[in-house]
Amino acid sequence: MQSDIENNKLKTLLVANSILHKAETRGNADHGWLHSRHTFSFANYHNPDRMHFGVLRVLNDDQVAAGMGFGTHPHDNMEIVSIPLEGDLEHKDSIGNTAVIKSGDVQIMSAGTGVTHSEYNKNKDKSVKFLQIWIFPDTRNVKPRYDQITLQPADRHNKLQQIVSPDAAGPGVMIHQSAWFYISKLDKDIALEHIIKKAGNGVYAFILKGSVTIDGTLLNERDGLGTWNTDKVSIKANTQDAEILLMDIPMN
Length: 252
Description:
The chain is mainly beta. The chain contains one helix and 23 strands. It has one helix at about 5-10, and strands at about 15, 20, 25-30, 35-40, 55-65, 70-75, 80-85, 90-95, 100, 105-110, 115-120, 130-135, 145-150, 160-165, 175, 180-185, 190-195, 200-210, 210-215, 215-220, 225, 230-235, 240-250.
């Protein structure tokens, strides 16, 4: 009998300069209060073919039950981006920040030399859904920092809204890496093109809603596609209100 990892290998399509991760091949963790799907190896989910994509180390699709959350725990030398999709997430950390992030916000925590924090569902009557993304930094042992912004949904309609960049002036939150993140909400049949921001970077696309075709590959909700050794990617929405997260990141 084949192992789960071997079965996932069969469901992961690898072609020249791109890799497709279908939604159903992700790791699955159900702790009762937390349901998490892991695109890359994380915690008890280990897949040697899913360790990272370039500097993208973790892409967790989390759902936390009402009133529950992650107790205080440590991080260091990692850039951690949180993107709420539904509900409200309360954050507290050891560098003095207490905040609530909600759908439409983006949060960055540069763990650097070390930080502890907790994350809880602010609401007692509904779950919270959010993406937790870890990026390897380009500089180790920086001073820990925290930031969050509230985005304007209109700025992503049929275009790529920048939400993360290496530039402290924005737009988006600043990250210690030559990485740019974008979110887009597309009408059916709208086509966009993204030009790679820096030589040596690749792109990892994650479909939040609907169906999108990227460079000829059909992607459905929660599918991911990594592309490298290219200078641009083409995007076309197959459904109304398709939503996509695009991460332009170093491959080394």
